[in-house]
Specification:
It contains five helices and no strands. The chain is mostly helical. Helix 2 (11-34) packs antiparallel against helix 3 (39-66) and helix 3 runs antiparallel to helix 4 (71-96). 9% of the residues are buried.
């Protein structure tokens, strides 16, 4: 059990969870601003991307620990997850009405 706690207690996992929390809060705010908030969408997000990011990264971390030659993949996957979450956060900021530079709108 302590191995699982150690796995989910890494700095990388904390970054992913914090970014997911920010994304969810901004998505809810954007949905409320646009008046299209539906609990079903929130539930689908929670079981889809959240599980994929958190559990997927945990599995990649385990693979990196079990196969040291693949340890660099852990950092690559972390960067890809962070980029995806930041893109979603930026998209939600745009939905709220926050002015964004043109380069971030693409």
């Amino acid at each position: 059990m302590s191995d699982i706690i150690t796995l989910f207690g890494t700095i990388q996992m904390q970054v992913i969870v914090i970014l997911i929390a920010i994304d969810v809060v901004l998505a809810v705010i954007a949905s409320l601003v646009k008046k299209d908030f539906v609990f079903r969408k929130l539930a689908n997000f929670m079981k889809g991307p959240v599980l994929a990011y958190v559990l997927g990264f945990a599995i990649i971390e385990m693979v990196g620990q079990a196969l040291p030659r693949l340890a660099s993949i852990v950092q690559v996957v972390l960067v890809l997850i962070v980029i995806a979450l930041l893109a979603s956060i930026i998209r939600n900021l745009g939905r709220i009405g926050v002015p964004l530079p043109q380069i971030l709108k693409r």
